[in-house]
Amino acid sequence: MTQHVKIPQDRIGVLIGEGGETLRRIERSAEVDLDVNSDDGAVAIEKTGDPLRGMKGPDIVRAIGRGFKPDAALSLLEDDMRLFETIDIERAARNDNDLRRKKGRLIGDSGRTRELIEELTGADVVIYGSTFGMIGGPNEVDVARSAAEMLLDGAPHGSVYSFLERKHVEELKHQGMEYHEFSG
């Protein structure tokens, strides 16, 4: 069974990699055959081996198309529970200026908000075009999605950071680690 995914033109080179290296790595790791049409960004994905690994093939291609580095996209194969999700920022925006403002809120000053979301959730996060993409475990993606939605709804950054810190502490406690807040 062949699945088709369309990715932006400017991400085709990343998908293929130098001398086709990334493409072959994806094919080998996910046990799929990829047929890339460089003219329109269409990618045909055919499963060739383990069906469970092959099911991740389209998500790996989509993730690269949405701005993730190949290593982050291939991390979807590390665990059956790893997910790739996107939020369409454009749907939350009223116009082009609002879209730019909302993207800016997600990115933060010098990329700090995006970095904090990554650090405190453990998810890989990318803002590309009009999408906010996340790769991680179910809880990581859920918390990252919630933080992004709070920012898109206009919540103050401080409130979102507090939410992320609280979730991070809860996760550490859940893992049985003791957490001591730095008071400096």
UniProtKB/TrEMBL annotation:
The entry's keywords: RNA-binding
InterPro entries, per database record:
KH_dom, KH_dom_type_1, KH_dom_type_1_sf, KH_domain_protein_archaea, KH_PNO1_2nd
Keyword Transcription set for record: no
Extract the Gene3D superfamilies matched here: K Homology domain, type 1
Q: Which SMART domains match?
A: KH
User: Which Pfam families did the record assign?
Assistant: KH_1, KH_PNO1_2nd
Q: Which PANTHER family match?
A: RIBONUCLEASE Y, RNA-BINDING PROTEIN PNO1
Q: Kindly provide the name given to this protein in its UniProt entry.
A: KH domain-containing protein
